[in-house]
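Hello forum,

I keep getting stuck at the same step: I have a sequence, I want structure tokens, and every attempt I make locally crashes halfway through. Rather than fight my setup again tonight, could one of you with a working pipeline run this one for me? It's a single chain of 161 residues.
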Amino acid sequence: MIIGQLILFCVVFTVMVKLSVGNDPLNGLYFYPKPFQERAFELGLADRVTVSRKRKRFMIPFVLMLLVLLVIIIGAWNGTQSFWPAYLRALLFLEVMNWYDGIVIDRIWVGHSRFWIIPGMEGVPYVQSIKQVLIKRALLTLIWIIGAAAVAELVVLFFGN
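Reply #2:
Ran it on my machine without issues. Output:
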């Protein structure tokens, strides 16, 4: 059951990313590395205000929806009611999501799909190196140790005894 839930969580993550971008990778320019964004701004393909607004319009609902889904999966679907079991499940989900994002989304989907190539930016590198992915994901691994506690507290608040 837990494998299916992890797959569902990652599928929702992926679908939300795709829906935010639609059929134009410029809609998701905020996903790209800063140097890539700067070059797009220099070329006049996008402006900072619009990219910032799109990022906020995506990230706030994205984080809230994944948080709600995670709390529901752990509390309602799994019936977890106490802190430590909720914490361990939250940590598992957050770490799987973290590494899924770095490996499957960043390295495989973005790195090997023509979809993410922005016309006019063909020569500008936009895929993170393996070293960059490992550093970013390792840092997020530490952050999710704390984030999982917040999720566990919400599970206990809404589904605890």
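The chain is about 75% helix and 0% strand. If your local run keeps crashing, start a new thread with the error log.
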